[in-house]
Every structure is written in structure tokens, then in C-alpha cells.
């Protein structure tokens, strides 16, 4: 069983005399005090979903696609450009990492657009590292739009992906996995980035539609273990990035959104942590959320999963990370894009867009879920449930969600209704509504504290007696 210790720790940290921080260990943390310890200032962007509007933006086919989604595709390039501009103003920025879904649906022209939009970072001396997402390779949904019709356009293979992004991680790799697009890079001396390819994009997987779920194969896990052993032998600090989550970001995610986690996530996460990888940056679900898994329930074997929201989904965030191995800290701050040149009030537009998109999602998803359960609800009851679920999901996207007392009371009433279906849905929505863990947007982590295990053991005892 995983014990997820999230914002509860922050509330307890005052009792411990600590700042808003939580400890975890990383491979290679025992440095030589006589040598200078490395540091790294880097940014995290995720799920760019860049769309080149030369593929069409008018007509019912494109309008229908956008209406069924929650991504601001038409504004994607402009939002990313605004984000790059902000990053170029960050003093001392050394690297940017992007854990997948670079394009709308893997269109070659969209990949080429991505590299052109990111190039100013490289021109300024900022290293950029990418891995693929489930939309990026061998995607049958790579199409252009014209009026009522769509036309297949060229997507990319795995080898073409590595070629396109040779200047964005692959040429800088100090090790490559033979059977995936995974690699190891060293952004600064002493710190290794493990870029992991968790996607399924074989012809069989993507025969009709892109496969949403992800995996770390046994072959890849063995390769990762070898890289971590090498890192430990060389006293390197290691963190990872991949598209899919390693740790559930809310209690009902494995029930309703399991495809956003790697297959067999608990055993995979435990294996990675045992091998020495305890920190990963992920995307895919488009939410700002930080969560931990305590596999031994005593703080001795941890995994931290820092998920970053989508560039093209409100609130359009990016993270700035200051990693300092000398002091053993890593601070995380988050910034949203609230304005773009082409729109007078982008902040209001993006809020309206995400809520409308989420309502459309739940109007399809909830009836399908209930039908599988053999349950039929009246129109009014179903509409109420859809509205509540959409609002909670939007709040989760922003991070640091805190449902009001009226919402919590309504969910509690559902849980205690006496009706099995109502109670089940109430409990699952409650798990989405309540985020009792680490702060999601701005937080300071202490990766190399010698007291990590002691603190987690104390927290565990407090929780057991609470």
C-alpha cells in the first residue's frame, strides 16, 4: 500500500521546526565536501500541443475537434512564444525540460514548428531536453482540416523524432536506450537527467487511434537500473522526466484515468525508487500537482512525482526549479501565462475555454461510466453531477485546490446517501476535490537532508495516532 504524504506534511512541518519542505533522497547525494557541489536552474514546460494553423483553423471539422477538447490549439504557438519570452528573462536559466506531447497529434509540420519556437532558448545558451508524449509519434490523428473534411498528413516515426530533436536532448545524450527514445543527459557537470520514453506508438498500438496509456518495459527498467548504478558509482545526482505519472495524483485517478499512469505504476515506482530514482517530472494529465509515494510506509523508500500542467490548457503554467546540491534544497515556483498579443483578455478567455471543454468532456464521460455500471440517472441529476465534476477537475488543473464547505457538504451527503451508486460517485469526486498534501505550485523540497528518514518516520507515527 502507498502512503501518500502531501499537504499534511506542510501543516506538520511547523511542529517540527522546519520550513515548507519535505525530504527525499537522490542517487549520488554523498558528495565530497572539498569539491564544489553542482547546482542547476531549470524550467519545466509540459504538453505544448503545438498546432500549426497552416493545417486549417476554419470550418466545422476543426471547430468540432476543438469543441471536444480542452486545449487552445489555435493559440498554441502564441502561448508558447509568450512562455519562451518569459523564460528568456529569467536570470541564470540553464536548462528547460519538456516531458512530452509537443504537438497536437504528431504532425511533421507541427514538430518543425515546435523546434522553431524553442530555438530562441538555445540561441540564448539554454539547453532544452524533450521526450515524446502519446500524441507525438506514429499518430493516425495527424490531419489537416478544410471545411467539413479532414485529410491525413505526415506524422513522424521514432527515429524521425530523434532526428528532429537532435538539438533538444538527443545529440547531447551520454547514453541512449536501444529500444526506445530514452536517454541520459548531463545538463551541468554532476547532475544527470534521465529522459524516459513511456509511450506506446507501435503500428499495432496506434492502428486506429493514438494509445493514451504508457509503460516502462522490463528491458527499459533494466537499462534505467544500469544507468542509476553508473550514476551512483560516479557520485552523480539524478532526476527523471517522463510523460506518464508514476504516482496517482488523486485517489480516484487509477479508477477513472488509469491511462495517465504507467502500467503497473506501484511496482514500477517502487523498482525505480529502489534503484535510486526518487524524483520525476511528469505531464500528460494537464494538472499542476505534486505527490509522493512512501512505499515502505516509513520514509525509507520514496518517490516524488512533480506533474506540470499543459502550456495550452488553463492556467497555462510553467515551473522554475532551483536545484542546489550544496544546501540540499530544491525550490519550485510556478508562473502562468495570462496575456498574449492577439487577445485583449486572455486570462478570462482561458478560464471560460477550460470550463466549457471540461463540461463537454464530462457530458460524454459520465454517462458512459454510469452505463458500464448499469446505472441510469435522470437528466437533472446527471447535469448536476456533470457540473460538479467539471468544476472539481478545473480546480485540480490549477493545483492547490481547496473545495469550499458547500461543495464538501454536498459530496459528504452523496457518500452518506445510502444509495450505492451515489455513494461511490461521491467518494470518487471527494478524492478529486481534496488535496491534502504538498503544495502544488510553489514549494521548497529538501532532497538531501540527512534527517529525511527520521522526519518521515515521525510523520508516520503522527499520522498513525491522528
UniProtKB/TrEMBL annotation:
Residues 40-287 form the Calcineurin-like phosphoesterase domain. It comes from the Bacteria. The keyword Hydrolase applies. GO terms for molecular function: hydrolase activity; metal ion binding. SUPFAM superfamilies: Metallo-dependent phosphatases. The keyword Glycoprotein does not apply. Keywords: Hydrolase, Iron, Metal-binding. Pfam families: Metallophos. Belongs to the cyclic nucleotide phosphodiesterase class-III family. This is Calcineurin-like phosphoesterase superfamily domain protein. The lineage of its organism: Bacteria, Pseudomonadati, Pseudomonadota, Gammaproteobacteria, Vibrionales.
Amino acid at each position: 500500500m502507498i502512503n501518500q504524504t502531501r499537504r499534511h506534511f506542510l501543516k506538520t512541518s511547523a511542529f517540527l521546526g522546519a520550513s515548507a519542505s519535505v525530504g527525499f533522497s537522490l542517487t549520488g547525494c554523498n558528495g565530497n565536501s572539498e569539491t564544489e557541489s553542482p547546482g542547476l536552474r531549470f524550467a519545466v514546460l509540459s504538453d505544448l500541443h503545438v498546432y500549426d494553423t497552416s493545417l486549417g483553423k476554419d470550418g466545422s471539422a476543426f471547430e468540432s475537434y476543438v469543441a471536444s477538447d480542452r486545449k487552445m490549439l489555435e493559440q498554441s504557438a502564441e502561448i508558447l512564444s509568450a512562455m519562451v519570452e518569459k523564460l528568456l528573462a529569467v536570470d541564470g536559466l540553464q536548462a528547460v525540460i519538456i516531458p512530452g506531447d509537443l504537438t497536437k497529434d504528431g504532425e511533421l509540420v507541427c514538430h518543425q514548428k515546435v523546434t522553431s519556437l524553442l530555438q530562441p532558448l538555445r540561441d540564448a545558451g539554454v539547453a532544452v531536453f524533450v521526450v515524446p508524449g502519446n500524441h507525438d509519434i506514429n499518430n493516425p490523428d495527424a490531419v489537416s482540416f478544410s471545411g467539413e473534411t479532414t485529410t491525413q498528413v505526415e506524422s513522424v516515426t521514432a527515429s524521425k523524432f530523434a532526428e528532429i530533436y537532435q538539438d533538444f536532448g538527443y545529440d547531447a545524450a551520454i547514453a541512449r536506450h536501444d529500444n526506445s527514445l530514452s536517454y541520459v543527459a548531463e545538463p551541468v557537470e554532476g547532475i544527470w537527467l534521465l529522459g524516459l520514453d513511456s509511450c506506446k506508438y507501435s503500428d499495432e498500438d496506434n492502428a486506429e487511434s493514438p494509445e493514451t496509456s504508457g509503460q516502462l518495459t522490463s528491458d527499459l527498467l533494466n537499462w534505467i537500473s544500469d544507468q542509476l548504478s553508473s550514476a551512483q558509482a560516479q557520485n552523480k545526482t539524478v532526476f527523471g522526466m517522463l510523460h506518464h505519472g508514476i504516482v496517482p495524483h488523486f485517489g480516484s485517478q487509477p479508477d477513472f484515468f488509469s491511462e495517465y499512469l504507467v502500467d503497473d505504476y506501484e511496482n514500477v515506482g517502487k523498482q525505480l525508487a529502489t534503484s535510486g530514482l526518487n524524483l520525476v517530472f511528469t505531464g500528460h494529465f494537464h494538472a499542476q500537482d505534486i505527490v509522493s509515494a512512501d512505499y515502505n510506509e516509513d520514509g525509507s523508500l520514496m518517490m516524488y512525482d512533480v506533474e506540470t500542467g499543459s502550456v495550452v490548457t488553463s492556467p497555462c503554467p510553467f515551473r522554475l526549479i532551483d536545484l542546489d546540491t550544496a544546501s540540499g534544497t530544491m525550490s519550485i515556483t510556478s508562473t502562468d501565462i495570462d496575456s498574449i498579443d492577439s487577445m485583449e483578455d486572455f486570462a478570462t478567455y482561458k478560464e471560460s475555454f477550460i470550463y466549457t471543454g471540461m463540461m463537454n468532456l464530462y457530458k460524454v464521460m459520465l454517462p458512459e461510466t454510469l452505463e458500464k455500471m448499469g446505472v441510469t440517472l435522470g437528466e437533472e441529476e446527471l447535469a448536476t453531477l456533470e457540473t460538479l465534476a467539471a468544476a472539481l477537475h478545473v480546480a485540480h488543473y490549477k493545483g492547490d485546490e481547496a473545495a469550499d464547505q458547500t461543495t464538501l457538504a454536498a459530496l459528504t451527503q452523496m457518500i452518506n446517501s445510502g444509495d450505492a451508486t451515489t455513494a461511490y460517485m461521491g467518494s470518487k469526486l471527494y478524492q478529486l476535490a481534496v488535496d491534502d498534501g504538498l503544495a502544488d505550485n510553489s514549494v521548497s523540497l529538501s532532497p538531501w537532508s540527512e534527517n529525511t528518514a527520521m522526519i518521515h518516520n515521525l510523520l508516520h507515527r503522527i499520522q498513525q495516532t491522528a
